[in-house]
Specification:
single chain, alpha+beta, 4-stranded mixed sheet, 3-stranded antiparallel sheet, 23% helix
Amino acid sequence: MGSADELVDVVDEHDRVVRVVTRGEMRSGRSRHRTVFIVVVNSSGNVLVHRRADHKDVWPGRWDLAAGGVLASGEGYDTGAVRELAEELGIVDVALERLGSGTYEDHDVAEIATVYRARWDGPVHFADGEVAEARWMTREELQRSVSGGLDFVPDSVALVLPLL
């Protein structure tokens, strides 16, 4: 099954499931859905940022300051965060700290999200091909890059950056 055929919960503004659709239907209808973000920070306080693969269905090739993605139908936030971190960055067996949650909507997406932090000094590898490259940035470098250096995805800037 391709990613467009994966089942996704469409939720109302209170995060209650109102229907189940394919990911393709969710994207084409810009339906509100559940997502997770996992910001990875090393022991020096640097943040791991990554560039999304060019084949991504939303914001291809743009930079992101958190791993994460859409939850599958019936998947919980904590379970989804563990899965996404392993799939995108190859990071497993690490404690996740819940930082907060929020909503984000623009002309591309409508989502309810939970944000986590993982502390990690080990290697990363791009297991599922959704990440093209990654680099560590200091908080100052990240702020400068978000302000004008690199083209970042807007949802993680809006939801994750304020929680750092």
